[in-house]
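Notebook, student rotation project (T.W.).
Task set for the rotation: take a protein with a known small-molecule partner, predict the structure of the complex, and write up what can be learned from the model alone. Partner molecule chosen: thiamine diphosphate. Sequence and SMILES entered below by T.W., checked by me.
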Amino acid sequence: MALLESIDSPAQIRDLDNAQLAQLCSELRQYIIACCAENPGHIGASLGAVEIAVAIHKVFDTPQDKVVWDVGHQAYAHKILTGRREAFKQNRKYHGISGFPRRAESPYDSFGTGHSSTSISAALGMAVAAQLEGKHEHVIAVIGDGAMTGGLAFEGLNNAGSLNADILVILNDNQISIDKNIGALHNYLLKVTTDRRYNKLKKSVWDRLGAGRLRAWLQKQVKNFKRTLLRIDGETLSLFDSLGFRYFGPIDGNDIASMTYMLGRLKEIPGPKLLHVVTTKGKGYAPAEEDQTVWHAPGTFDAATGRRTGKKSDIAKFQEVFGTTLLDLARTDPRIVGITPAMATGCSMNILQAEMPERVFDVGIAEQHAVTFSAGLAAEGILPFCNIYSSFSQRAYDNMIHDVALQNLKVILCLDRGGLVGEDGATHHGAFDLAAFRPVPNLTVCAPLDEAQLRDLMYSATQPGYGPTVIRYPRGNGHGTPWRDRTFNYIEPGTAVKLHEGRDIALLSIGAIGWKGAEAVERASRENGIEVLHYDMRFLKPVDTAALEDACTRARRIITLEDGVRQGGLYSVVAEFIASRGLDCTLVGLGIPDRFIEQGTPAELQAECGYDADSVYRTILQEKN
Ligand SMILES: Cc1ncc(C[n+]2csc(CCOP(=O)(O)OP(=O)(O)O)c2C)c(N)n1
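Predicted structure of the complex:
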């Protein structure tokens, strides 16, 4: 680590020559690999973007010049170069640094990211702000070909192309999202990067640029080059030019010399510009290059061999239950299809995809479209299971209201990773879903306690008696409840299940967090002789009013437990019930408080928020006394 170990700020790399920069890139890779082997993270994207980070900090005057990393999972080299080399060992850990850029963490993180496709809009806002304030600064957005499939990216491009602000978009094209990138934009980029005549043209221009001719000459050549590019085989190729950007590239984004050279030139050119760079996801680490989907975020591994060392559990993950159940249902009901916004592997829809590829639609990183597309399918009698990670579904809120619920179209929205997700932190916690969807008319909103309930709720939602339905469940393992090869049981909407009898206190829980409650209830009974009436509510809407009535009249001291925000969630449901009936009850709500929760293990974060098993137990004792 001859160079890297002494670099604490980008100013220190500005005098390095190309050979030293190449060495720095290689050291950065080794460091990222060594750290991620023990402390897992988004290694594949970050390895691919090392040269982009080094070149930006070499050429631009950061942090006065601003860089916005789209999604931000590729920004590890950026973090390490900007004073966080040691802190990176605590990447994504409780009280460590965030796995994504975060404004509060460093002046070099000019904009917080985590959700895809925001970089162009944010960078444009910054560029326009600089104009308004009379400042001369450069603003760069780095966006992947996957993130570019998000509609928001195009809203940003469309706006930028007409405002003529000084903004540079670096399109980091590694031709993969998490899964294989698909769609028309992907086909277009592929065509640009593989067209032989185009590449020949590119090479001749590039060779001459390399000779260091004058800038005016360069600009003329680039203009001519673009004109040629506009028509290949009679087709318009320059999508970005037509949106008001000056398109440059494609160049090899893993070649540090080309990157610094090109960025140095583009720095002098005003207006909206897009540099198309081609990189390899996982670059420099063979296992990560070979299986790019797995190595998007592989967990722990042995750096020398690439063998993944994460523990395997015998207990099924909720994701596996979802994927398997969807396949089982699809086998029996030809109306069923699956829709995923670019998360087929993550949510396990790839199980259905493997057997019935024609019935799975990966629509790109396009949550809004995924929901409205599902609504369109439902309008014509198809039965769509649309699976979205809870926090990403925030984008599709209006689509659920306007396109699904208002028209009462039977879309089954399965929200994966509901609740505190852990190491991905504040941007990724599925905190708001239950509270957000509850006030929407026509929706059924439920959260299974375990694997068997997830399976039964998915089945039930396909049956008459259910309209548009939201089923939310957490990331990771279920409880170990038998679920495979079980016959499906219909669950009546709005019915709770009594898990424990008692009348000293009532615990009302929703979702898999109910097991923490059950643990506390059992302990209070065993150690303190306190008998808690425990209902697993299952449905937030419609709510089981008979269960609420039972809890309020028999126990009268109520605790709610949810792995989501209390405000608007189960806590609010019960508070409203008590108030509307004028009942004489006390109520304590356990769940996510009114602040953003950072990263850590789910256990650490649940303890911090006061709703792990121990906290529930202590609350039971407190309420009893
Ligand atoms: C709104 C939203 N949806 C989904 C995701 C999950 N996600 C994280 S990275 C990623 C793929 C991004 O692909 P690309 O932009 O090409 O970057 P790469 O990882 O290939 O470098 C996805 C789908 C997200 N972060 N935000």
